[in-house]
Amino acid sequence: MEEQKKLSVRDVLWRKKHARDKVLDAVGKLCEEAWAVVEKLANDRTSSAKDAAQARELGLRLRALGYLIEGEHYIDRIAFELRSKEVYLKTNEVSQAYVAEMVVSFLDTIIAYVTQSTWDDRDLRGPYTDALKQSLNAIRQSLVPEEEKQDDSKESLIK
User: Fold this and answer.
1) What are the CB-based long-range contacts (under 8 Å, 24+) for 78-83?
2) Residue 139: other Cβ atoms inside 10 A
3) CB of 139 within 8 A of CB of 23?
4) How does pLDDT run across 48-86, given as a tens digit for each residue?
5) Contact 145, 96 (CB under 8 A)
6) What secondary structure letter does DSSP report for 101?
7) What is the domain partition of the chain in residue ranges?
8) Around Cβ 97, how many Cβ atoms within 10 Å?
9) Which of 10, 42, 48, 98 ranks highest by number of CB atoms within 10 Å?
10) Which fold has domain 7-158?
């Protein structure tokens, strides 16, 4: 059996950055969709002000989610700059706690907001909110790492 290649701190952080960039792209697309809904409602004279306010609030919450996700990058940047296994392991713990405590909990509040929102416009009530909830749940799944992935990356690290 061939020995498994050991990953450097840089390699692990590079992979993590690419995964985070994919999540940020997905959040960015959701922000653009939310702003498109706001513009559509603003141009439609028959739409209610409540729908426009909810769509705007949703867009602002999604943008804040993007900033929170980007915050993890700065924690990882410390490990990258110092380039040691010990610093990486400590910042990895901090990063995981940050994602669990801040990012995922904020994402859960957005999902709850979408679920509890009542829309007057039928196009928003049905397909848009269902697709949005599905996308947000997919983002949530990508943010919550599996235990095996975490253990493997820690064990395969070298200086």
Assistant:
1) 79/9, 79/13, 80/9, 80/10, 80/13, 83/9, 83/10, 83/159
2) 24
3) yes
4) 888 888 889 999 999 999 999 998 888 888 888 887 778
5) yes
6) I
7) 7-158
8) 11
9) 98
10) Four Helix Bundle (Hemerythrin (Met), subunit A) (1.20.120)
